[in-house]
Amino acid sequence: MKRKLIAAVIALLCMSGVSYAEGFKIAFVDAQKVLNNTKEGGRLRQVLDEFVQARQKVIDLEEKELTRLRDEFEKLQSLLSEDALRVKQAEIEKAIEQYREKVSSLQAEVRDKRTSALGEFNQKLEQSVKQISEKEGYSLVLDKNPERGAVIYGNATYDITKSVITHMDAIYAEPKGKAEPEKEKK
């Protein structure tokens, strides 16, 4: 749907006349490459990795507790009465259910954190692309990513990915406490 809409817009612009199309500049950017190669993207990956590692430690502790409960059950199995065994087994089953709920909850936290972080990154990317486009006179900038973008092929002369990486690094890689250039102007 997205590709058809963009193709239709480009077709309409091309059919509208050579004089108008001459001033129409199209560019594309590889957003995934920007994410992978900017300082901001690196910072984002580091934050997400630390977040995931912290959640994994919680899961690891829960797994150790489950293993301890199972080992204890196996050791005491021959010593306990039938009623005591049922109580101990119910305790283990409850712990397993709590573990599954905890894992599910932590996975949801990681998904939410990733979505939030990528949303923040995409806003910064869009702002950089907008500023470059206004400065360079691009009428349309497309995302080159074939999985979610609209460009299947693009001439390398229209690729502004390096400019976006440089621009984002210049704006968003400043040490904390310094104002961003945009904010200083206001």
Question: How does this model look, in words?
Answer:
This protein has 186 residues and is mainly alpha-helical. It has one domain. It has seven helices and two strands; from the N terminus they run ααβαααβαα. It has a two-stranded parallel sheet. The longest helix is centred in the middle third of the chain and has 55 residues, at 82-136. The chain is rod-shaped and about 90 Å long. 12% of the residues are buried. Mean pLDDT is 83; it is low at 15-20 and 182-186.
List the helices and strands and how they pair.
Blueprint: H1 2-15, H2 18-22, E1 26-29, H3 31-37, H4 39-76, H5 82-136, E2 140-143, H6 161-172, H7 181-185
Parallel strand pairs: 1-2
What's this model, at a glance?
The protein is mainly alpha-helical and 186 residues long. The protein is built from seven helices and two strands, in the order ααβαααβαα.
Strand order of the largest sheet: 1-2
Helix-strand makeup class = mainly alpha
Q: N-to-C SSE series?
A: HHEHHHEHH
Please, how many domains?
1
Radius of gyration: 27 Å
Largest sheet: 2 strands, parallel
Number of strands: 2
Shape: rod-shaped
The residue-averaged pLDDT reads: 83
How much of the polypeptide forms β-strand, as a percent range?
under 5%
What percentage of residues falls in helices of 4 or more residues? over 70%
**Number of distinct helices:** 7
Low-confidence stretches: 15-20, 182-186
Distance between the termini: 39 Å
